[in-house]
């Protein structure tokens, strides 16, 4: 959905650019309006009005902002990107430096690198729902323990009525979005999947490598739906996902963590492939389940994920937390 939103902005702007150029050539007197249109066409975020900063981190160098873009609610995520080793020569030789202070053998500077090395990864969700805004708002979290019965009586009815749209997932599977980003596809409708970069990864360095494998089947919401019948699907993703990442990026299976989230944000089965050394948000023990463990648990007991209690964190404002509270489970 976010991707579709982004594309809409791009198409609209492309039309506007032509109009603006034509007017300028004719020396149109409405030049103020033209300047505005020109800024908007070069920059789809032009005129964004900030409502609140939902979350920011000096350490992670990112900021999550809620506001209005062309009168629509939007969430924008700004994130400074990691420094890449292959750009060091250009940084040292092509930057402007301003001395902050010097003391004995120590000195600090403000360094202004060439513009193309000073980019910020920017993610736009527009139009954003209230759920998107809440997802990014910093919140107190609580650990919930869900039995198989709790899943069926509390969680399942809740996610059936409340979960995020998975239209963006269907767009990928149907090649309506991100088709050019696909790294590998097994088209089999039973055990097949599409492997592509997660949109959190800018693909500029391997340190934070993050891909997702999205299954073609549309009947598996999450870990809870898995039984031994799905073992061919899971082992296929594990094997072919790792092979494709080795082939494309030269990263060996021993350098990857491959896991599922429970609870996920999107209830269409997908598996995360992350660089082992990368401390990705959501890969802690309270949220992530290693695919190799999932496979072994299902080999030992087909009903493992139907019957076992599973723990996961919920933020204070998440509706599911109130459902657990109402049921006296917290
Ligand atoms: P999740 O386990 O459902 O939950 O992961 P999380 O979002 O709480 O981690 C879904 C994953 O899909 C996340 O890592 C998102 O960054 C990624 N993702 C979400 N959207 C909307 C897109 C998208 O449009 N394209 C791609 N490539 N990845 C997405």
Q: Helices and strands in order, then pairings?
A:
Layout: H1 2-25, H2 31-42, E1 49-57, E2 62-69, E3 72-80, H3 88-94, E4 96-103, E5 106-112, E6 120-125, H4 130-136, E7 141-146, H5 148-162, H6 167-173, E8 184-186, E9 193-197, E10 210-215, H7 231-249, E11 256-261, E12 270-275, E13 288-290, H8 291-300, H9 304-307, E14 310-315, H10 319-326
Antiparallel strand pairs: 1-2, 2-3, 3-6, 4-5, 7-14, 8-9, 9-10, 10-12, 11-12, 11-13
Helix pairs in contact: 1-2, 5-10, 7-8
Bound molecules: 7N-methyl-8-hydroguanosine-5'-diphosphate (M7G).
7N-methyl-8-hydroguanosine-5'-diphosphate binds at residues 2-3, 168, 178, 196, 198-200, 212, 261, 264-266, 282.
General description of the model:
The chain has 330 residues and is α+β, with helices and mostly antiparallel strands. Among the domains are: 82-118, no CATH class; 139-326, HIT-like (HIT family, subunit A, 2-Layer Sandwich), CATH 3.30.428. The chain has 10 helices and 14 strands. The chain has a 6-stranded antiparallel sheet. Strands 1-2-3-6 form a 4-stranded antiparallel sheet. β11 and β12 form a beta hairpin. α1 packs antiparallel against α2 (31-42) and α7 (231-249) runs antiparallel to α8 (291-300). The longest helix has 24 residues, at 2-25. The protein is globular. The protein starts with a helix and ends with a helix. The relative contact order is 0.12. Mean pLDDT is 88; it is low at 1-32. It binds 7N-methyl-8-hydroguanosine-5'-diphosphate. Belongs to the HIT family. The active site is at residue 270. It is an enzyme of class 3 (hydrolase).
């Amino acid at each position: 959905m976010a991707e579709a939103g982004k594309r809409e902005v791009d198409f609209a702007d492309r039309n506007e650019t032509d109009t603006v150029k034509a007017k300028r050539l004719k020396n149109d007197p409405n030049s103020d309006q033209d300047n505005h249109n020109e800024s908007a066409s070069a920059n789809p975020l032009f005129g964004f009005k900030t409502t609140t900063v939902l979350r920011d981190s000096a350490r992670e160098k990112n900021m999550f902002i809620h506001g209005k873009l062309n009168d629509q609610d939007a969430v924008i995520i700004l994130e400074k990107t990691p420094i890449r080793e292959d750009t060091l020569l250009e940084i040292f030789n092509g930057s402007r430096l301003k001395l902050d202070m010097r003391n004995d053998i120590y000195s600090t500077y403000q360094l202004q690198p060439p513009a193309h090395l000073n980019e910020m990864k920017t993610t736009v969700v527009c139009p954003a729902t209230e759920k998107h805004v809440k997802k990014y708002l910093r919140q107190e979290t609580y650990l919930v323990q869900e039995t198989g019965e709790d899943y069926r009586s509390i969680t399942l009815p809740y996610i059936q009525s409340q979960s995020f749209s998975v239209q963006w997932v269907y767009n990928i599977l149907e090649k309506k979005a991100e088709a050019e980003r696909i790294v590998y596809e097994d088209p089999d409708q039973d055990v097949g999947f599409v492997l592509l970069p997660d949109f959190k990864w800018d693909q500029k360095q391997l340190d934070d490598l993050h891909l997702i494998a999205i299954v073609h089947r549309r009947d598996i919401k999450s870990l809870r739906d898995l039984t031994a019948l799905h073992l061919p699907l899971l082992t296929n993703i594990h094997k072919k996902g790792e092979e494709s990442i080795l082939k494309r990026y030269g990263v060996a299976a021993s350098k990857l963590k491959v896991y599922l989230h429970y609870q996920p944000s999107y209830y269409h089965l997908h598996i995360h492939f992350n660089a082992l050394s990368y401390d990705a948000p959501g890969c802690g023990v309270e949220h992530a389940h290693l695919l190799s463990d999932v496979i072994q648990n299902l080999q030992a007991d087909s009903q493992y994920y139907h019957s076992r209690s599973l723990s996961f964190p919920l933020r204070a404002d998440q509706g599911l937390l109130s459902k657990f509270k109402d049921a006296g489970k917290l």
